[in-house]
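In response to the reviewer comment on reproducibility (Comment 2.3), we provide here a single inverse folding case reported in full, input and output, so that an independent group could reproduce the run without further information from us. The structure tokens appear first.
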């Protein structure tokens, strides 16, 4: 699945998210600590999001997760994926400016979303919510958890990628990481 088709699927599934029964993803999210050292991991792709005028950096650690993806193996216990959301630089009309490569230009960090996988995690979720052994958490720019985030929506939107892509939208990019 390409990132583009994934995003289309994601948009469609967002509408479904609210249809699922409430489950306590909040407690699960508390297992995920802010990844202080995310920037020492592998920056494996960046995404320009025109819909919300964001520039995003996607980091993975540890490096063995990249090796696993290349081999088509499940990502190892201890894998942390960090998505850093930056406000894109806007022009006078309020549209994202582009750099010489036609890419958005990052300014300040707005928020972070993190997914972390550990052996034994996820057991408490019903099958229609569970994403293998992944837990999700959203953090504010100050690195504290965003308690207003709907963590169940993280599960429901990533769910259709299932075990084949290890619930990761950017799986192809992870595989292609240097
Ligand atoms: C409406 C669908 C949707 C929801 C809800 C959603 N995501 Fe994602 N997520 C995506 C898409 C699409 C990407 C691919 C990168 C991009 O477009 O920014 C992504 C990428 C990610 C990544 C990078 C790894 C990957 O899968 O590519 C992380 C980490 C992540 N999301 C965490 C979260 C967390 C935490 C939440 C809940 C607070 C969440 N997501 C909610 C659609 C969603």
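Designed residues, in position order:
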């Amino acid at each position: 699945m390409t990132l583009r088709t994934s995003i289309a699927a994601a948009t469609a599934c967002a509408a479904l998210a609210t249809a699922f029964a409430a489950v306590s993803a909040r407690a699960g999210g508390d297992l995920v600590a802010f990844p202080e050292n995310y920037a020492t991991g592998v920056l494996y792709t960046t995404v320009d999001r025109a819909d919300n005028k964001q520039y995003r950096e996607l980091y993975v650690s540890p490096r063995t997760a990249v090796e696993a993806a290349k081999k088509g193996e499940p990502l190892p216990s201890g894998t942390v994926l960090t998505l850093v959301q930056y406000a894109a630089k806007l022009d006078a009309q309020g549209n994202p400016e582009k750099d010489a490569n036609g890419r958005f230009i990052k300014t300040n960090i707005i928020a972070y979303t993190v997914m972390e996988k550990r052996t034994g995690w996820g057991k408490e979720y019903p099958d229609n919510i569970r994403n293998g052994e992944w837990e999700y958490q959203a953090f504010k720019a100050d690195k504290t958890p965003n308690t207003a985030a709907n963590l169940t929506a993280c599960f429901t939107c990533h769910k259709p990628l299932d075990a084949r892509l290890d619930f990761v939208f950017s799986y192809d990019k992870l595989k292609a990481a240097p």
